[in-house]
Amino acid sequence: MASELSQRCPGAVWPDYAGGSLVNLMASLGAALGASPSPYAPLKGAGLPVGLGQRRSVALIVIDGLGEAPLGHLGPDSALAAAQRDRLTSVFPSTTAAAVTTLMTGAAPGQHALTGWYVRLEDSDEIVAPLPLYVRHPAGSPSSRSALAGRLFGQPAFAARINRPTVVLQPSYIADSEYSRAHAGPATRLGYDTPEDAFLRLELLLQEEGPARFIYAYLPELDSLMHDHGVRGEPVADLFHVIDRAFARLAGVAAQQDAVLLVTADHGFIDAPEARQIDLEQYPDLAACLALPLSGERRVAFCHVRPEALDTFDHLAENELGHAAWCLEPGWLLEAGVFGPPPWHPALPARLGDRVLLMKDNYTLRDTLAHEKPLYLPAVHAGVSAEEMWVPLIVAGCVD
Predict the structure, then answer these.
(1) Assign residue 103 a region: left if phi > 0, alpha if psi is -120 to 50, beta otherwise?
(2) Do the domain assignments include residue 98?
(3) pLDDT means per 10 residues in the chain (400 residues)?
(4) Which of 194, 266, 319, 371 lies at a 20 to 30 A Cα distance from 221?
(5) At the top level of its lineage, which domain of life is listed (predicted)?
């Protein structure tokens, strides 16, 4: 299937679930921390330090959006770049809802079934944003947040599988969200106010006495700035240097505290020119084929097509959008393994819709509902470009 993927989507980078992805990082990390056996292959190569499981503290720091390409141009001479040991692929789609859920559960998207910023609930045809947990469609849905959480969040937490106490450190505004509570599992949840505060709290956690433990820290601020200002925006560079200085200091503390720092990202980024943003409303015949709004992401749209309109949709997608997107069958993508190996979540086929529009180059696709305001994002992710898919594996602290 790998050769067929290359033929149908030339130049695309797909997840390497055979040993080179975030999924495999979590499989090896789990094994080092006493987890029950993982169904996924261990991480290939020598990216993880020998004796990782014997360290008193192991911290996994996820810097949202800091893929290998952004790291390369933001800080080629940075402390973070100097400590990079390897590179990994993200998952598919290369986006926070899918990849952070993998990092917090150890499961591939095929198992946890959170496939993008927007997810279709198959039993009600609601289109839901699982991270902030709101219903996009239909407007005025009576579904409560707790009910939505119960239908979306079923994958056991990574923290529940290892034999160490765990601390999850996140921004205060999400530390107690339904998503965070579900995916932290039995971990102690802590909030922070700024990235500087996050690293200070990490220093204190490494210096605390007590049993060996695992720390998961999530920093979304760089991602937010790249969405707003582009990958090379001045505020992005300023924040990167703040994070890099704080990381260098934390690495010194870790080396004195029998601690290992593992730093990675959930995905990378590409700049998205406004001239290459496609509004579905500009293609009314194509939009008329849909039974529901788009789900997924601007770089990978899951299209829920009326059964009688499938042939028309395929024809229009090729003739009107073929320059900007590959139109693919979700079942073919499943069998190709891009969401991870089987067995798959029973809801996954319905959530993937009837066709997938996977954007080429730096094109994006959006639809805007009647109650929504049009939103342009100068930089995006979720696609299969090298810039979006490759993430660094950075190792520091008490390492050989």
Answers:
(1) alpha
(2) yes
(3) 87 98 98 95 91 96 99 98 98 99 99 98 95 95 94 97 98 98 98 99 96 98 99 98 99 98 99 98 98 99 99 98 98 98 97 99 97 96 99 93
(4) 371
(5) Bacteria
Tokens of 247: 């990381």
Angstrom CA distances, 86 to 32, 80, 119, 199, 293, stand at 18, 12, 32, 23, 39
Pick from 173, 185, 177: nearest CA to 106? 185
Is the whole-model pTM more than 0.90?
Answer: yes
User: Which tokens is 320 given?
Assistant: 């009107």
- To the nearest 10 degrees (0 to 180), the angle between helices 22-32 and 96-105 is 20
pLDDT at 47: 85
Rounded to 5°, the CA angle 391-59-73 comes to 30
Residue entry with tokens 């980024």:
269
Same domain, 236 and 280: no
**Angle ∠(16,108,40) on CA atoms, nearest 5:** 65
Instruction: List the CATH number of the domain containing 372.
Output: 3.30.1360.180
Distance CA(2)–CA(9), nearest Å, equals: 10
Q: Which domain holds residue 33?
A: 10-107+159-271+385-397
- Alpha-carbon distance of 121 to 196, in angstroms, equals 38
